[in-house]
What does this fold into?
Amino acid sequence: MTAIPSPSQAVWYLGPLPIRAYSLLMVLAVAVGIWVTQRRWTARGGERGTVGDIATWAVPFGMIGARIYHVATDWQQYFGPGKNPLRSFAIWEGGISIWGAVAGGALGAWLACRRRGIPLRDFADAAAPGIALGQVIARWGNWFNQELYGRPTTLPWALEIDAAHRPRGMESTATYHPTFLYESLWDLGVAGFVLWAERRFRLDRGRAFALYAAAYTTGRAWIEWLRMDPAPLILGLRFNVWTALLVFGAAVAYLTATRQTPTAPAAQGQSVAEDESNPRPTMAANPSRWRPKM
It folds into this structure.
């Protein structure tokens, strides 16, 4: 039987300093996301350096939000009889969530955009594909850690999990759905889909980001359904499935509410001179009219 092997090591030591594969991938994911966003921002007429300034707010807020969401949804690990609440701060032990990362990052980006007088929705449009590509990279951290895999399977692309990382009571089951790979490939498709849709349709005013949110949550819902790590259940569904459905509904509602309307034709008899006396605003003055170039 064929299977995808899991890495035998996820941490290396440089003297007393641990170098974790997941941390390296997170740093790379953030760097790629910032680079892609910067290219898109400047291609739309944005000022160089703006993305870096906003990232200094968005990245720390995103990490804090990622940890808060994890602790809030898995609070039994940290609070209650026999638990140590201080472990809730031990982020190096693992435990972050993309839901909290995006929410926290959005709050940090909003604060930074507000200081600069930039509409958050325009920055979010520029950032959407970069966020998806960052997720493509970061998901491979689960592969190194042998965590967050799916149900048992014997498919040719099954993921082989070492005995020490298998669920209790399933020590004899060696292969599982590689949900990290499913989500990584899905996110790559989401990035491409958003880029294609921007070229095919006019997506502005936060619509590119809303499309990213709708597309991502569509995949995350069924991938989450495959996972078998412990999670809170509501009406028989994992909490994160409900989160995906809620975000999907909000994204679709936003796309519907902001759908484009045809531009009204010029009044009959209006002269060219009259029209040129009110020129179209520049990209810098009206970011919501920027055209995507990447």
Observations:
- The two ends are 42 Å apart (CA to CA).
- Confidence is low (pLDDT under 50) at residues 262-294.
- The longest helix spans residues 50-73.
